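User: quick one, fold this
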Amino acid sequence: MSHLPDEPNFTLPPSKFFVGHTDPLTSVALFPDSKMVISGSYDRRIRLWDVGSGKESGEPLRGHKISVSVVAVSPDGTMFVSGGGDGRILIWNTTTRNLAIEPIQAHSNKIDSMSFSPDSTII
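Assistant:
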């Protein structure tokens, strides 16, 4: 069982650098198997990363007209979603890395947060 220290130790150097976005990150999420990380950025790109190597997995995904403001991964790992400054929600298939359905214009302004239900059926 892990125990958190009374005071955090922020002196440890990072174990990996994930380099690829051209603008600041807005959101990061870990896949349930802890092997992949997804990130969103002001550069309007979604990137998937291999945790073991620290390298980008595949090409950046595009679909938002303005920044990617939030990303989330389904508990079963089969889907991930992105919300943007354009108010759209994009639902992605993890295996194909293509949109699972057409973009949803959910808001007139930026989407700040999203999450999945525990059974991965509701966003």
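User: anything notable?
Assistant: The mean pLDDT is 88.
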